[in-house]
Amino acid sequence: MNLKKIKTFHLLLAVLCLVVVLSAAGAILFVAPPPSQETIDAVKTRFVLRDVEHGLLMYQRQFERHPDESTWLDELRASEGDVADLGVDAWGRIVEVDFKEWEIRSAGLDGVMGNEDDVTLAITQLQAP
After folding, report:
1. What pLDDT digit, counting tens, does each position of 54-113 carry?
2. What number of other Cβ atoms are within 10 A of residue 80's Cβ?
3. Considering the entire predicted model, what is its pTM?
4. Element (DSSP H or E) covering residue 120
5. Which residues lie across from 120 on neighbouring strands?
6. Residue 84: which residues within 8 A CB-CB, separation 6 or more?
7. pLDDT value at position 105?
8. How far apart are CA 86 and CA 88, in angstroms?
9. For residue range 3-18, what is the model confidence (pLDDT) as tens digits?
10. What is the H or E stretch that residue 122 is in?
11. Quick one: which of 128, 83, 126, 85 has its CA closest to 104?
């Protein structure tokens, strides 16, 4: 009688282990869908905004001022060695820098500034001239 109980216990334990393993595998494979292209592009654009912020900081350290708002990209590219893709978001558009609001902005997927798909970064390390 004890042998039958032990075999039953081992069988139930094996089934329980199988259920746990299959549940974990299912959670990994099916719960987390791959990111959309829109999400990937937004992440790439955040890196672009960080690069612009870094370039602006380096520019300010070198020239003791930030570039002019209307010519910031040309000035920044010239100081960085004319990096052609500096300031271009994942959708191929030039980002905006607002020295009044201290933000760097991309219009996002739709190309229209001021709605929910915009990607923005607050400029935190620059100083007012």
Report:
1. 888 888 888 888 888 778 888 877 877 656 678 899 999 989 988 888 899 999 999 999
2. 15
3. 0.68
4. strand 119-122
5. 105
6. 77
7. 93
8. 6
9. 677 777 777 777 777 7
10. strand 119-122
11. 126
Taking residues 30-58, report their average pLDDT.
84
* Eight-class DSSP state of 23: H
Q: What letter represents residue 78's amino acid?
A: A
- CB of 123 within 8 A of CB of 115? no
SS (H, E, C) 37-106: HHHHHHHHHHHHHHHHHHHHHHHHHHHCCCCCCCCHHHHHHHHCCCCCCCCECCCCCECEEECCCCEEEE
Q: Which among 77, 76, 66, 86 has a CA at the least distance from the CA of 126? A: 66
Three-state DSSP class for residue 111: coil
